[in-house]
Amino acid sequence: MKLLRVGTAGAERPALLDADGTLRDLSGIVKDIDGELLADETALGRVRSAAESGELPVLDAAGLRVGPPLGRLGKIVCIGLNYHDHAAETGAEPPAEPVVFFKAADTVVGPYDTVLVPRGSVKTDWEVELAVVIGRTARYLESDEEALAHVAGYAVAHDVSEREFQIERGGTWDKGKNCETFNPLGPWLVTADEVPDPQALGLRLWVNGELKQDGNTSDQIFPVAEVVRYVSQFMTLYPGDVINTGTPAGVALGMPEPKPFLRAGDVVELEIEGLGRQRQELKNA
Q1: Is the pTM of the predicted complex or chain greater than 0.85?
Q2: Per-residue tens of pLDDT for the chain, all 285 residues
Q3: Which keywords annotate this record (predicted)?
Q4: Distance of CA 9 to CAs 65, 110, 111, 116, 275, Å?
Q5: Domains by residue range for the chain, with CATH
């Protein structure tokens, strides 16, 4: 299923994109697309049955904002330097264990919302990423198979980053990762049953129409299952938590000088095979 949330920011309603590409209203069946729903197999079954019946009300998509596909977000756990080609372009050694950092839930915006260049920023960068959405409480998972059984679905994430704040201003990466609007998510949450192999997904990103990133999740240093299992050793993952699993080569940071960092007026488009496409225009904060 392709689950999404539509409407004005803070007042989105749950919806579903059916097999024919028709937008259908789920608000008569569930309150929201969130961790509570993803953990409830009975409720998900009702959604599936309603979708298959073709009787869900149709929504007019014209002019309707698409919000993040998850409400009441929990943790956003991020994995850094998780593609062989990205580590190479930045001159970093592939890490021996996953590099873990966090983004705050309030960085998340819709897939077509404006991204704000922070005040004082000269190194705002792009990163297309596969987002993994947790569907069952996960702690101390023992196997990759068990880890994948705890995944509810997948989505497109844009891990926007300010490299000066991240790397040159001391401390951890947090200052360069948690600026307002720095995690567009969506357009949909695609349930795990529709993604048979999360290690076979193409990822692409364009800036002002020019292709910058063209990678595949097969190049991940730590595959999705290993990432979920690993993270569960250090923290409990709850339904509705999100893991951003890293970005392939092609970011501005890895390019020759002068590096083409993002500025107000730039347009970024990104997509992951089977998971949808995003588009953001940048403006100054």
Answers
A1: yes
A2: 999 999 999 999 999 999 999 999 999 999 999 999 999 999 999 999 999 888 899 999 999 999 999 999 999 999 999 999 998 998 888 999 999 999 999 999 999 999 999 999 999 999 999 999 999 999 999 999 999 999 999 999 999 999 999 999 988 899 999 999 999 999 999 999 999 999 999 999 999 999 999 999 999 999 999 999 999 999 999 999 999 999 999 999 999 999 999 999 999 999 999 999 999 999 999
A3: Hydrolase, Metal-binding
A4: 8, 8, 12, 16, 22
A5: 2-53 (no CATH), 76-284 (3.90.850.10)
